[in-house]
Design a protein that fits this description.
The protein is mainly alpha-helical. Helix content is 75%, strand content 0%.
């Protein structure tokens, strides 16, 4: 029977491979070469390769799956990838482990972020509340910021303003800018318009570097511009809207608003400058659809009835063509054609996975995928779909590893014992039983992951159809308005 011990230990390693996420109350030290290597790769921003390396080392028995410090690295990597369900699984177990104060705070911080991003605000609040007295200022400030956003989600803007104010005063860099913006929004929604507007104006003057920071400044200037439009202060509105970059995520709305600021000042030629720039852009964008009516309106105000009629006809042609494409996209989604297209998405593309979305909008089922991602519910569901796909890939990889390792066990025994008898036969029988159990567990993981993918796809389908039907209804209204306006313009031309 002693000869069975190696086989049982080897098989036990396979079993542990399937129980990923369990954490011992006795964490190992942080000075092992493996830990330092993972830490180095994590800081280098290589999330997916590090996850693969950790799981591989665990399978090969190089590190213990009960190493809390390695598990914490793994959880952070999942958080960075947006795989919050996997992160919560690990972090929930770690929260019950015996950790030093620094690691304990890190666990609750990452757990709070994961709960927040999955929409579990109550659990997020409970986790983040533990960090109000954190000795790490960056962690404490971000936690306070998230607590403020949670308060905003339940329309408690006074509490949100207080939490975010506590955070932004000590924040620097991009986090300080985000905090200022969200604090201003909380103040405006709580009825302190002038106070919030002043804070936005201060933030808009900050000198920043990097695409993310510049995009935030664009968003701030766009927000200020539209607030001034609501206050009928067109000059101030145009001043801030013209500061938004011409080719950025907020440029379309800024161009539309800048044109309306011009019309409020009765400067219709000036209004046409941003509107004509916007007119030639992607018609899938709502501001582009709206500007197709705005341009001929400006020409009407200038008395240029011929040009107004021409642009109204262009709008009608564009709307009709877009209606056809929109109807085809809706039909394609109803026929369940979205799933095969989304399956082409590289779910391992780390933080750049959203860029991969851009390659999907040349198919009918996903033609409006980038526009749909502006909807928070659709975006969160897409993230959950991506996570389910990632887990399914991981489950299939584990199953392949089980097949390879059990096969090697059989081959080794057969080479050593050509005529298996007695205890040797018992070893083979034991391996067979264990392998069958491991395959059953792996198949269950794959099944659950596939079921999760199907659930997320169904939710994506329902949300996409709802949003696209709304777009179709709005396009119908634009088309009716364009036809009516064209008839009026042609009537004026005849009566000149």
């Amino acid at each position: 029977m002693l000869r069975m011990i190696p086989a049982r230990c080897y098989a036990l390693g396979l079993l542990l491979m399937l129980s990923h996420g369990m954490v011992s109350a006795q964490p190992m030290g942080k000075q092992t070469p493996f830990y330092r290597n993972y830490q180095f790769l994590e800081y280098a921003g290589q999330q997916t390769p590090v996850i693969g390396q950790i799981l591989k080392d665990q399978k090969l028995g190089r590190i213990s799956e009960d190493d809390a410090h390695v598990q914490l690295i793994l959880a952070r990597l999942y958080v960075d990838l947006g795989l919050h369900i996997k992160a919560v699984e690990i972090l929930s177990a770690l929260s019950q482990a015996e950790l030093d104060a620094k690691d304990y705070q890190e666990v609750w911080f990452q757990l709070g972020k994961s709960y927040y991003h999955t929409g579990h605000f109550k659990q997020a609040e409970q986790a983040l509340e533990k960090l109000k007295t954190s000795t790490n200022p960056d962690m404490r400030n971000e936690a306070m910021h998230l607590l403020g956003l949670i308060s905003m989600s339940r329309a408690d803007y006074a509490a949100a303003a207080q939490d975010i104010q506590d955070a932004w005063q000590a924040s620097t860099g991009i986090w300080g800018q985000y905090a200022r913006f969200n604090l201003a929004v909380a103040q405006i929604r709580s009825g302190h318009l002038d106070q919030g507007l002043d804070l936005l104006k201060q933030a808009s003057l900050k000198q920043v570097a990097g695409n993310e920071a510049q995009a935030l400044i664009d968003k701030i200037n766009q927000t200020i511009g539209y607030l001034y439009l609501q206050k009928n202060e067109a000059e101030q509105a145009r001043l801030h809207l013209e500061r938004v970059r011409l080719n950025g995520p907020y440029s379309n709305m800024a161009l539309l608003g800048a044109g309306w600021a011009g019309t409020m000042l009765q400067q219709y030629k000036q209004a046409l400058v941003p509107w004509l720039e916007l007119h030639g852009r992607d018609i899938r964008e709502v501001p582009v659809q709206e500007v197709m009516l705005s341009v001929p309106y400006a020409y009407e105000q200038l008395g240029a009835w011929g040009q107004a009629a021409e642009y109204y006809q262009r709008a009608i042609d564009a709307y009709q063509q877009e209606q056809g494409l929109l109807s085809s996209s809706i039909a394609s989604i109803r026929n369940n054609e979205m799933g095969p297209v989304l399956a082409q998405m590289n779910v391992r593309s780390e933080r750049n996975w959203l860029k991969n979305i851009r390659t999907l909008d040349d198919k009918l089922a996903t033609r409006y995928i980038r526009q749909l991602m502006d909807d928070e519910l659709f975006f969160n569901t897409m993230n959950n779909y991506r996570e389910a796909r990632f887990i399914a890939l991981e489950a299939n990889t584990r199953r392949e590893s089980i097949a390879e390792m059990t096969g090697n066990m059989y081959e080794n025994l057969k080479r050593q014992q050509q005529d298996a008898k007695g205890d040797d036969r018992e070893q083979l029988q034991f391996i067979g039983i264990l392998a069958a159990d491991l395959f059953k567990r792996a198949d269950l993981l794959v099944l659950h992951a596939d079921q999760a993918i199907d659930r997320q796809l169904e939710q994506l389908k329902r949300r996409a159809l709802h949003l696209l039907e709304r777009r179709k209804d709005r396009l119908d209204v634009y088309l009716v308005q364009a036809r009516l306006a064209l008839a009026q313009s042609l009537n004026r031309l005849e009566n000149q």
